[in-house]
Sequence to fold (142 residues):
Amino acid sequence: MIAPMPGVDGGCLCGAIRYRVEFPTIWFAHCHCSMCRRAHGAAFVSYCGVPEAQFRIETGADMLVRYDSSPTAWRQFCRRCGSTLTFAGERWPGEVHVVVANLNGPLDREPAAHCYYDAKVPWVDAADHLPRLGGPTGTQPL
Ligand SMILES: [Zn+2]
Ligand SMILES: [Zn+2]
Fold:
């Protein structure tokens, strides 16, 4: 028997969709942009980036819905329970952004930054000391 690759499993709220992220991830950051906030109904969304080959849907692929949130980016969610699971876009070729809150265990790294922090909601402030990034790309020092 071959030992499983180090990584972490994840899934949607109803359990129909299960997937696996294999380590190493590329990055881990929080996004405060208005599109992520709206897609998730949350003050901000935490993602890790992984190469496409290291993200695998194990069950429920038929339950995944793709929504093109812009001409160059798309998001996937469960059509039964609505859990938002991934983001991908032409700006990050070959990469999947996986919603960290839906993973079942720890990642291989800590969060590194707040992106689009200048677009954040006024009623939540980050209490950590991570860099606050923003501007047109969402990743420039503020
Ligand atoms: Zn579901
Ligand atoms: Zn965002």
User: Anything to note?
Assistant: The chain has a mean pLDDT of 96. Residues 12-14, 16-17, 78, 80-81, 83 surround zinc ion (ligand 1) (CB under 6 Å). The radius of gyration is 15 Å.
